[in-house]
Amino acid sequence: VCAFRTRRLDHVEFPYVYLDATYLHVRTEHGMVVSKAVVVATGVTSEGRREILGLDVGDSEDEVFWRAFLTGLKKRGLSGVQLVISDQHAGLVAAIGRAMQGSAHQRCRVHFIRNVLAHVAKGEGEMVAAVFRTIFAQPDLASMGKQWDKVRDELTTRYPKIGALMDDAKAEVLAFAAFPREHWRKIWSTNPLERLNKEIKRRSRVVGIFPNEAAVIRLVGAVLADTHDEWATDERRYLSEESMAKIGKTEQTDTVALTKG
């Protein structure tokens, strides 16, 4: 597991990197049981194949932890990253800005919709979610930007707090639309990691409470190494090589649609 976690990553470029955290119970050296974040990084290579990039245990809201994790990946040779897909952990976004300069950030749209719905009356959740989804049915970034503003104005009349929430998140939730359309469904959220997280949870339930962080690394590292091998031997690419070649040739400079008005 140690060799797997520290292997070089400079054999190929990784245009897409996904970051996610799963929470497990770990006993501290003082005997207390606390919830710890198991952070996993996966990537899609320029050839359209997936790889496990890294694993660590720490505080998912701590910028210093995230920055050390991301810097560690870069020191191992991670390069060519154009989009980082993740949830909105407090310290993570700041860490991406510092450690992954030049990379765009895609805020998981699934988690963002949940944040929006937290401000909505229970009986209206389905209606609001349906209205919000009309944004992602648009054909391009400019159209999505206009629809975002329309939905924002419509929802804000009933739920004022949603306005500021949508203003702050617009650029990050719509970042995916500057990349090839064939990739949208696989890069607009962290959902591609759900199956991996479920397997980590399933294997962890057998243990219940881990005696220390090293035990977490051993078990989760073994799960990730198995998954990595499965991906390596899969005949199908996660994203086609032809579509990966389109990255950078789409309108990634179109930021006009991401500003209000």
TrEMBL record:
It comes from Knoellia sinensis KCTC 19936. This is Mutator family transposase. GO terms for biological process: DNA transposition. Pfam families: Transposase_mut. GO terms for molecular function: DNA binding; transposase activity. It comes from the Bacteria. The keyword DNA-binding applies. PANTHER family: TRANSPOSASE FOR INSERTION SEQUENCE ELEMENT IS1081. Transmembrane segments: none annotated. Belongs to the transposase mutator family. Keywords: DNA recombination, DNA-binding, Transposable element, Transposition. Required for the transposition of the insertion element.
